[in-house]
Amino acid sequence: MGYYSSVYGRIMIDPPLTAPELREIGVTGTASDYGRKFIPEGQNSLRVVVQDEYRDTDEGRLTIMRGVSLVVAYEEEFRAHTLEQDLGKLVDRWLDRLSGVLVVSGEDQGDVWRLVVTAGEVVREDAFLTWPGGADASPKTWPERGE
Prior knowledge:
Layout: E1 5-17, H1 19-24, E2 37-38, E3 46-57, E4 60-72, H2 83-94, E5 98-106, E6 112-118, E7 121-126
Antiparallel strand pairs: 1-4, 1-5, 2-3, 3-4, 5-6, 6-7
């Protein structure tokens, strides 16, 4: 995919990543330091959404960081050619803790697909057009012009 895509959705992390797990992927500081989104080391297209929990103790206020979900790294369209690979690396790392769907819409009409994460694996599902009655309506089935 050499063109721009829009990506929607979120991958949940349950149980959330702990502070030591976040440090392991290069996340330091608190969520409020960085706007609550961190790009893990080696990633191009995904960010970890971090939430701070606060607990009052006898010695003061304690801040606990938790990585609660994954979202795309960019708010605008971007070149998503590494998205499936990047997500696969994180699923391999965190196995059954990830679940959710990312829907990708490319520049070309009808270029829609999604990445579904369940049970420790990423499955790509391509959308396709159908005519009433269920026949394939994708452009590859269209007759040549003038036929």
